[in-house]
């Protein structure tokens, strides 16, 4: 039975990846941080067979202990401070966890394997935010990076450390440059979920407005469930490499609002949306759109869900959650959304 260790197992991608690996017959371990971590119950509910280990990407000994306990064949490093907007307020913490945390995990694997790094395959969650101020459209593995946030800078550090350990120590280390990927399990702070949850609650009369930042920002949005398959495929290749994972289609926040409001029968949504300058970012990534041809030809990967059905699925899940909330006050909407994993 293959064994995998996932950092960031409590997040959207961690949950989908754990489900995928369990379905493939893996024994899955998840690293969780802190006593009474409030996100642990959600992991136990969705993937009860995952074995949770205490550890923190800021603490090298805890990573070595987790590796010694799990004895993994594959490590998926998804743990990070992942909200770009917050990374300006907490730039140092973001660098510490999202950036140097990658180095610590690579070092931990080095120590755990007694310098035979090739024994453990490593996946690093790199990000399209590394492209930042885009130099070409669409972006490929060869596009230069110019990150536009402390988060993006930290991800570039983690990315090149992964490449460096591969080239220096023969690590089977892969970096997946993933563009935005969403689902009903997405955190409320990210724009897709903020919109779908807000729209559902407006449709049910639970709130009147959604307050947003830049409506002209464009992103390449895919479904998280499709993207975790690409992570797994990368680690099954004989040669480790880096891959862009994206749909190749870009939409604006306005498009997102159109589809989400249309789903609940509201055509004219202007009166429900307020723009707040405080939600604009100090520096914005204007147009991200990825070219995943390499993943398509070498991994045989392609996205299955498209934008409209993804957004509609998220609105429907949030409608169900908000409806339950109305009928059983005190129950968190996420208790319901937790169970709604699919898209498209
Ligand atoms: P992003 O995702 O920064 O691309 O990073 P997010 O959903 O936060 O923002 C997308 C775009 O929407 C604009 N926007 C708003 N964003 C948020 N969160 N809230 C708002 O109210 C709002 N209004 C407009 C933003 O300015 C931005 O342009 C995500 C994360 O998952 C990263 O961890 C990951 O690496 C990348 O995707 C790929």
Write up this protein.
With 344 residues, this protein is α/β, with parallel strands linked by helices. Strands 3-2-1-4-5-6-11 form a seven-stranded parallel β-sheet, sandwiched between helices. It has a two-stranded parallel sheet with strand order 7-10. The protein has a two-stranded parallel sheet with strand order 8-13. The chain is globular and about 60 Å long. The chain contains eleven helices and 13 strands. It folds into two domains: 3-181 and 221-245, NAD(P)-binding Rossmann-like Domain (Rossmann fold), CATH 3.40.50.720; 187-219 and 250-287 and 306-337, UDP-galactose 4-epimerase, domain 1 (Alpha-Beta Complex), CATH 3.90.25. Strand 2, helix 2 (40-46) and strand 3 form a beta-alpha-beta unit. It starts with a strand and ends in a 7-residue tail after the last helix. The chain has helices at residues 12-23, 40-46, 60-70, 91-112, 150-169, 191-203, 224-235, 253-263, 293-299, 307-327, 333-337; strands at 3-7, 27-32, 51-54, 74-77, 121-127, 173-178, 181-182, 210-212, 218-219, 222-223, 242-245, 251-252, 273-275. The structure holds guanosine-5'-diphosphate-rhamnose. Guanosine-5'-diphosphate-rhamnose binds at residues 82, 84-85, 127-129, 178-180, 189-191, 194, 212-214, 217, 219, 253, 279, 281, 284.
